[in-house]
Amino acid sequence: MSALNWQAVVAGVGGQGVLFVTRALATAARKKASRILISEVHGMAQRGGAVVSHLKVGGYSGPLVAAGRAELVFSLDPGEAVRNMAFLAPGGTLVVNAPDLDFLTPQAREALAEHQVRAVCADAGGLASGAGAPKGANVVLLGAAAAAGALPLATSDLKDALLLGQPAGRKKMNRKLFTLGQGAV
After folding, report:
1. Is the pLDDT of residue 133 over 60?
2. Residue 96 located in a structural domain
3. Quick one: pLDDT band at residue 55, thresholds 50, 70, 90?
């Protein structure tokens, strides 16, 4: 087993599948680390409130990611990307469900460049809707993140994690959505 040490923040709003993404990442990371910590902050999901989870893989003692320490901020909503960017470490990666970074102010885009943050953008919501699964943007964005090399996980492990415990119909759709995401970057 390799000694992966990795921290991520997954953000979105209620109903977007933030917790599903976090569990899939944690499951995929099991082959690379013996210790995985997850902390979930549930907002007012029934009203589209913020939902954020912190994921730490490796030799960490506490579950919360400190500001400026996350190698990844994975956001299913551009607004939540803005609210959680302070977690990004210099040289980290921002993966966001947006066609581009136009949702950011010029100053914010400049700050990302200054801190050498890599941005991966994909219109995951549009792709998922086009595939007939509007709630599948989370899986599309995972596919985009994997294809962009934003995750320290094997793509096969991530696919396996997405299919684990899913009914046959959902497995088929998740495969399709993941592949759409891979083609989006």
Report:
1. yes
2. yes
3. very high
Give 156-173 pLDDT, tens digit per residue.
999 999 999 899 989 999
For residue 180, pLDDT beyond 60: yes
Pairing of β 50-57 and β 70-75: unpaired
Helix (H, G, I), strand (E, B) or coil at 7: strand
- CB-side exposure of 53: number of CA atoms within 13 Å? 21
A 10 A CB-CB count for 109 gives 15
Range of the domain at 149: 6-183
Total number of domains in the chain: 1
Three-state DSSP state, 134: helix
Query: Is there a domain that residue 152 lies in?
Result: yes
Domain annotation covers residue 128: yes
Q: Contact at 8 Å (CB) between 95 and 150?
A: yes
Q: Is residue 1 part of a domain?
A: no
Contacts 24+ apart (CB under 8 A), 109-116: 112/85, 115/88, 115/90, 115/91, 116/90, 116/91
**Amino acid 45: pLDDT:** 52
CATH of the domain at 28: 3.40.920.10
DSSP state of 65: P
